[in-house]
Q: What sequence folds into this?
């Protein structure tokens, strides 16, 4: 069984540890601590994705925008 917890570090207390111990009683476990990324941090974490987003922003700023109606988009399927 796997479990993933997302919480504020200030919320860690002895009851959380007791819950983990009860959930995985008698089993070996691995504990990995890493900070959660907000949406912007997540999208910019990959160099390739960051460059694609920056290129897209530049295209919009340069007026390279294609406008489609919903009907037009549905016809493209």
A:
């Amino acid at each position: 069984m796997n479990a993933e917890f997302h919480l504020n570090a200030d919320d860690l207390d002895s009851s959380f540890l007791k819950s983990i111990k009860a959930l995985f009683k008698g089993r070996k476990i691995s504990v990995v601590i890493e900070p959660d990324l907000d949406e912007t941090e997540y999208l910019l974490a990959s160099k390739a994705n960051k460059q694609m987003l920056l290129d897209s922003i530049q295209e919009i700023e340069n007026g390279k925008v294609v406008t489609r109606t919903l009907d037009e988009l549905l016809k493209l399927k």
About this structure: The mean pLDDT is 92.
